[in-house]
Specification:
The complex is a heterodimer of chains A (692) and B (167). Chain A contains six helices and 42 strands. Chain B has two domains: 104 residues, RNA polymerase sigma factor, region 2, helix turn helix motif (Rna Polymerase Sigma Factor, Chain: A); 59 residues, Winged helix-like DNA-binding domain superfamily/Winged helix DNA-binding domain (Arc Repressor Mutant, subunit A), CATH 1.10.10. In chain B, α1 crosses α2, α3 packs parallel to α5 and α7 crosses α10. Classes of the chains: A mainly beta (692), B mainly alpha (167).
């Protein structure tokens, strides 16, 4: 049987939709009459990577950066279709209010209002009746970074941001078994961890009841003898909003709407030959993220409310939509300016026996990235600005109304106090990933990149426990964007990128006056920073090549490891770097793909090698695992294993794809989806660690 | 003449070389625009605008081998511009809804259009960019501001949804 991708591609190829006869060479000739290519705009200062963004006026740049100007810079601005833009808004952060509702009708009215005028500001509307909601923040979290002074379990655990706060993943091991989610996300396969003799011993299926109830896994946890799965399922409703029984197959037509809900299910895996489900729960919305602390599971979903009657719901019993309960009005809130009718729905669940819900909160205001320590959960949402939106969709003819900068909304929930919402704020700019946030001594540090006046600038904010701004460094690394952040104690390490990769060291020990201490430049860029010891940072990311610069899409030519010495914070330096041309790895965009072996003091990452020879139209492709360590200030490759089980992730779905590695005992396990046509079934390979 | 030389000559202003490059891809360009916009008239407009933007802006193309991806990226933008203008004509207020306007006013491949209409705007984009325009998950991720893993999972899900509708 064909895989879905090939099947759909053939449908398009064979659709009979082809360019009409009149759209031939004459058509082109007519369109190009009197036109000539616009001469390339050379910029003496630096090579551009994007199409020149909407014109930048030097005056505006100075206005924003006066206080912290690092580089003075202007762009040639002579393309006919580009208009200069004026925007003189200072970079900022502010705390915001959260509003509660008195009745369900108020919620419904608000959702409908937001739906109607999606991007209109709602402050006045809320002002009429809403009661401001704010409480004191909770106590501070502890340190975040972890080096090799770590644990000794004999197997890897998911690479997480905070020790003790587990993060769900698609692969986990408990030392005895390896659990891995299939490519089509409908099964979690369980392999015995027996080196070369590893085999599949069990599988947990997502068990869709019908096509209309399409269920698939997102991620999962292993917690003691329990498997905790998270996934989504479809809820199909008729035009009156009534949900269909999940067991019914529906003849699709335009009359139906699809909705998504997220489930959490707990399985007892103490007897791998007899895995039993012991509890389930679900709530409305797409799965956003989750965390697990001890037995407590925290789930965040984002629920698009298509109409006012479509309020967030929870099902104490799995995905039986008939038993769904609406989230009570007194647990629903709204941020000050919801820009889209999306609820973030946050639940805390005790998984110790089955699954018991302890609390649910729904907040009108979306959710993207979450950051969590033992005490607090921060849910962030990116708020598009008109400027970014328009430039994204239409670079060449932009007449955007540059009124609002892009910003990130942050909602803080206290885990100690039953998910009480303790503060809400917004900071200018967007965040790269969860590592851009960190709580230290009660203060939240946030690193953002802001698209302002047609180019990127970068900022670091320090917010107090009520998320009010204490201090900031704004406007650094103009024209570059943040690719990686790591906080160690009171110091922030920030990687930005345009053509080169500066590592900025920012001292935030005085929260009111964070300051850039030093920087070092290196080509390529890191997307992940890993503390090796007190003085050394490992950067994992991309190798890039200048001359092969495809326009407005960065061409990343391979994998790069970099080692930074940060013992002198005012003068960080590059200790070592290793370039792997034509190598790619999931770890370049997903920190969880890093396997740290604390006993051996080394690292493993999966890789794929792919080189096309365009002249001969041939290619060389293979995948495997890379085992390396840091010794005496150098990067040392211990072993590069090439698997004969995996090929390369060439055409997304039909190709064989090595995704992850794991280890238990002396073996590294390689996990991925299978070869063509088997619908994403899992494949495993293993290699013994090379003796040091 | 091979493609690489055609791109070189087009960059030097050779319209016939550019025309040849277009002719080699015209069906997939048109198909992409048609399924993205759901209208043959709008598809013609978008492809037409793409031709002009690509030819006049060809000096910004750095690498010959990136031509196809670069061209589809321009087409993608032109399609978004068509959607934006369309929604302005219809007086839509919401930015988000703009991307959600999927109309189908034509009789070509009605089943496939119907299958696409089951998807969200984002899922449609991902399916068309991969199955019609031939982008890889990493490139789509870059264009749509998603993570490659997210693109992969959204794609496999959207494909399964379409397939169950079509089969």
């Amino acid at each position: 049987m064909k895989n879905d991708f090939d099947f759909i591609r053939e449908q398009f190829d064979g659709s009979g939709v082809n360019a009409p006869e009149n759209m031939g060479e004459d058509f082109v000739a007519k369109r190009l009459e009197g036109l000539e290519p616009v001469a390339e705009v050379e910029n003496k200062n630096k090579k551009k990577r994007y199409w020149i963004p909407a014109g930048i006026s030097a005056a505006a740049a100075v206005a924003v950066l006066t206080a912290t100007a690092l580089i003075s810079y202007s762009l040639v601005n002579n393309l006919a279709f580009q208009k200069p833009v004026k925007l003189e808004k200072a970079v900022s952060s502010h705390s915001a209010s959260l509003f509660g509702f008195k009745s369900r009708e108020e919620v419904v009215k608000t959702v409908e209002r937001v739906n109607k005028a999606n991007d209109k500001r709602m402050i006045n509307y809320y002002g009429n009746y809403a009661e401001a909601y704010a409480e004191d923040g909770a106590a501070a979290g502890t340190g975040s970074a972890k080096t090799f002074s770590g644990e000794s379990l004999g197997h890897n655990t998911t690479y997480v941001q905070h020790t003790g706060v587990d993060e769900a993943d698609k692969v986990k091991t408990d030392g005895k078994y390896i659990y891995y989610m299939s490519g089509n996300q409908t099964a979690i396969d369980i392999y015995s961890a027996d080196g070369e003799n590893s085999k599949k011993v069990a599988s947990v299926s997502s068990e869709s009841k019908s096509d209309s109830n399409y269920r698939c896994f997102s991620e999962f946890y292993i917690s003691g003898s329990r498997l905790v799965t998270l996934g989504t399922y479809s809820v199909v409703r008729d035009k009156d909003g009534n949900a269909f029984d999940p067991g019914d197959d529906i003849e699709y037509s335009g009359e139906y709407t699809f909705d998504t809900a997220t489930f959490a299910e707990v399985f007892d895996i103490s007897d791998i030959g007899n895995i039993r489900q012991t509890g389930s729960f679900s709530q409305s919305g797409n799965y956003c993220s989750s965390r697990m602390i001890g037995d407590m599971l925290y789930i965040v979903t984002t629920d698009y409310a298509e109409n006012g009657q479509d309020l967030p719901f929870i099902c104490a019993e799995g995905n039986d939509i008939a038993t769904a309960d609406e989230v009570p009005t007194d647990c629903i809130y709204s941020v000050e300016n919801p820009v889209s009718p999306n609820f973030m729905v946050v639940s805390s669940l005790d998984t110790s026996s089955n699954v018991s819900l302890t609390r649910t909160k729904a907040i009108l205001g979306s959710a993207d990235i979450i950051y969590c320590n033992q005490q607090n959960l921060y849910v962030t949402a990116y708020l598009y600005s008109n400027a970014v939106y328009n430039s994204f969709f239409d670079n060449s003819n932009s007449e955007a109304s540059y009124s609002e900068p892009e910003s990130t909304q942050i909602v803080k929930l206290s885990l100690d106090k039953g998910l009480d919402i303790t503060a809400v704020a917004a900071v200018d700019g967007r965040i790269d990933d969860q590592y851009a946030l960190d709580e230290y001594e009660g203060n939240l540090r946030v690193a953002t990149t802001l698209y302002l006046d047609g180019r990127d600038v970068n900022n670091l904010f320090v917010l107090d426990e009520k998320l009010e701004i204490l201090g900031s460094v704004t406007g650094f690394a103009e024209n570059e964007s943040i690719k990686a952040v790591r906080y160690i104690g009171s110091t922030a390490y920030v990687i930005t990128y345009e053509q080169t990769d500066p590592l900025f060291v920012i001292d935030a020990s005085d929260p009111a006056n964070p300051a850039i201490l030093g920087e070092v430049k290196i080509s390529g860029f890191s997307t992940m920073l890993v503390p090796v010891d007190d003085n050394t940072l490992l950067g994992i990311g991309y190798y890039t090549q200048d001359e092969d610069d495809g326009i407005d899409m960065e061409i990343q030519e391979g994998l790069k490891l970099a080692l930074f010495d940060v013992s002198d914070k005012s003068a960080p330096r590059v200790l070592d770097e290793k370039v792997f041309k034509n190598y790619y790895s999931e770890v370049q965009y997903n920190p969880k793909a890093l396997v740290v072996n604390y006993e051996r003091g080394d690292y493993v990452i999966p890789f794929s090698y792919n080189r096309f020879d365009y002249e001969r139209d041939t290619s060389e492709q293979y995948s495997g695992s890379l085992n390396f360590r840091v010794a005496n200030g150098k990067l040392e490759i211990i072993d590069e294993y090439v698997s004969d089980v995996f090929g390369f992730d060439d055409d997304i779905i039909s190709g064989a794809y090595l995704e992850r590695c794991a280890y238990t005992g002396d073996y590294i396990y390689l996990l991925g989806w299978g070869n063509k046509g088997n619908k994403g079934e899992t494949v495993i390979d293993s290699v013994r660690y090379k003796a040091e | 003449m091979n493609e690489k030389d055609l791109v070189k000559r087009a960059r030097a202003g050779d319209k016939s070389a550019f025309s040849q490059l277009y002719m080699n891809r015209r069906d997939s360009l048109y198909r992409y625009a048609y399924f993205k916009l759901g209208s043959s008239h709008d598809a013609e407009d978008a492809v037409s605008a793409c031709i002009v933007a690509a030819y006049t802006g060809i000096s910004t193309l750095k690498s010959e081998k990136a031509f196809t991806g670069w061209l589809f990226r321009i087409l993608y933008r032109e399609c978004c511009a068509v959607i934006r203008r369309r929604s302005e004509r219809q007086g839509e207020e919401s930015l988000e809804e703009r991307n959600d306007l999927y109309v189908c006013d034509s009789h070509l491949a009605p089943e496939l259009s119907e299958a696409l209409s089951q998807l969200s705007a984002e899922e449609r984009d991902i399916v068309l960019l991969s199955a019609v325009a031939g982008y890889k998950s990493g490139e789509i991720a870059e264009m749509l501001g998603l993570k490659p893993a997210t693109v992969r999972s959204k794609l496999s899900r959207a494909l399964a949804k379409m397939r169950s509708f079509l089969e």
